[in-house]
Amino acid sequence: PHTPDWWRTAVIYQVYVRSFADGDGDGTGDLAGVRARLPYLAELGVEALWFSPWYLSPMKDGGYDVTDYRAIDPAFGTLEDAEKLIAEAREAGIRAIVDIVPNHVSDQHPWFRAARSGGPERELFHFRPGRGPDGELPPNDWKSEFGGPAWSRLDDGEWYLHLFAPEQPDLNWAHPTVRKEHEDVLRFWFERGVAGVRIDSAALPAKDPELPDFVEGRDPHPYVDRDELHDIYRSWRTIADEYDGVFVGEVWLPDSERFARYLRPDELHTAFNFAFLSCPWDADRLRTAIDGTLAEHAPVGAPATWVLCNHDVTRTVTRYGRVDTGFDFATKAFGTPTDLALGTRRARAAALLSLALPGSVYLYQGEELGLPEAEIPLDRIQDPMHFRSQGTDPGRDGCRVPLPWVADAPHAGFGSRGEPWLPQPADWQAYAADVQSADPDSMLSLYREALRLRPVLGDGPLTWLPAPEGVLAFSRAPGGPVCVVNLAEAPAELPAHTALLLGSGPLDPRGRLPRDTAVWLRR
Ligand code: TEU
Q1: Which stretches does DSSP call E strand in 108-191?
Q2: 252 CB less than 6 Å from ligand 1?
Q3: What are phi and psi of 246, to 5 degrees?
Q4: Is residue 61 in contact with ligand 1, taking CB distance under 6 Å?
Q5: Which positions ≥6 away from 197 have C-beta within 8 Å?
Q6: What is the pLDDT of residues 326-336, one digit of tens each?
């Protein structure tokens, strides 16, 4: 059906293809694996799938280093597989969103290969001579997001800019060829039936042409949130509008007014809201984060998005299970042990909270199974962030481990004949989808129920209801259902004349809401 505003309220599931399901058994997840699991996704009740990059790539950054936007990486399948997947998903009532990475390409991209060997393609990137007597110093002091300088030097002495890994050279967005190419790529995927595009690192592509040193506090910033971007996204929007396509921007910006500038009727429909990722499990802080998010979206008429996790951050149950014990005099160390039972309770409550809020929700694969962050043996880590930090940062692989599907199968049913590309923890079977499917109290059952019941909550604005300290209570319709979350230590009395629709955990024997528990109630 033609539902132009589906994205205002949708639950969108992020597929990190490499780790979702291995259809051909080679150790890497693929499109055949996703196609085989479409019934699972339909039963879960998600309305769209966002696929992390599936294009031809040397995988130096999990596919965020693209060699060819019009080709699927052979490890994942073929363009025909992608077309089939998009069509089959659509038949199951699920839309597809692809991931476009405008800031950079792979150093194996034909443009950069030509640039490397001295061709005029250098203009498509940021090439500069170095500083110092022999040009042995980088052209400016910018730092890579992954650590170390944002510049690497070629054999001929010239330096090129890369805000991420050296294998991800930054494109020069002042060049018309760069703009034209991306507009063609957008059309290419919209023509193939995708409903939307996620824009990677959306606040970074435009650079000050002078490439000046970074000066703290100077506005405009030499490469973050520059005005030139708005012109680019306005021209993208005219293309999206031809296809009823929608954008979700990965716009990491601390300033909410600057953030909201991307959300306009002639720019991006939505952008990720990462407020929950840094918000502690505290009623006042959460309420402030929610109010702040809604306030920045309301004036521009854009729906808020809610994100509990993605492929770049620590898994939710681990994040919420970190108990900061402060300084421990016995071990003479600062401790942050993880209490997974606590983290799981909070993650369940956070799921009901975020799914009850106005707007759309992004659900990262494996969150519906309650997977914790995995510890990856040092010799198996692949994330460039780990290497660029000189090993001081474990990197992001712990949330990218292949999913467990079948408890009683090799590699928990991921599908690989040999070892999967990242090792699964020894207890991964316990999280397998088939076990959880049969267990009404599992995280998977909670998510399924929540997605099924979510429309019942109503689609009005959020109204906070009176609640004791440490308890959040709100409704989306006058006299309609209520969401209550208890973040206080003591059990909370539930509002009178209500009946349970869904709970993240059991009520106590006196019918009260225990700590770290959320409920949806009918009035
Ligand atoms: O991430 C953009 C980004 O800003 C990251 O540096 C982010 O701050 C970091 O991962 C947080 O831990 C996007 C993608 O989501 C990420 O996977 C890519 O590595 C990055 O762009 C480069 O394409």
Answers
A1: 127-128, 151-153, 159-161
A2: yes
A3: -120, 155
A4: yes
A5: 97, 98, 99, 100, 186, 189, 240, 245, 246, 247, 248
A6: 787 777 777 78
Q: Between the CA of residue 241 and those of 195, 267, 415, what are the distances in Å?
A: 11, 10, 39
Look at residues 109, 201, 107, 212 and name the one whose alpha carbon lies nearest to residue 160: 107
Does any ligand 1 atom lie closer than 6 A to the CB of residue 383?
Answer: no
Q: Which residue has the tokens 């071990």?
A: 331
- Identify whether the C-beta of residue 74 lies closer than 8 Å to the C-beta of residue 65: no
User: Which residue has its alpha carbon closest to ligand 1 atom 6?
Assistant: 145
User: Which residues are identified as catalytic?
Assistant: 200, 242
Query: Which amino acid would we find at residue 283?
Result: A
Taking the CA of residue 396 as reference, the ligand 1 atom at the shortest distance is: 12
What distance in Å separates the CA atoms of residue 183 and residue 188, rounded to the nearest whole number?
Answer: 9
For a mutational test of ligand 1's pocket, the pick from 16, 64, 106, 383, i.e. the residue with the most ligand atoms closer than 8 A to its C-beta, is 64
- Secondary structure class of 359 (helix, strand, coil): coil
- Measure 232 CA to ligand 1 centroid, in angstroms: 21
**Please, what are the domains in the chain?**
6-103+176-452 (3.20.20.80), 110-161 (3.90.400.10), 459-522 (2.60.40.1180)
Residue 250 CA to ligand 1 center (angstroms) comes to 9
pLDDT, tens digit, 9 for 90 and up, residues 468-489: 999 999 999 999 999 999 999 9
CB of 312 shorter than 6 A to ligand 1: yes
The interface predicted TM-score (ipTM) is 0.95
Ligand 1 atom with the smallest distance to the CA of 101 is: 23
CB-ligand 1 contact for 201 (6 Å cutoff): yes
> For the segment 72-102, what is each residue's pLDDT rounded down to a tens digit?
999 999 999 999 999 999 999 999 999 999 9
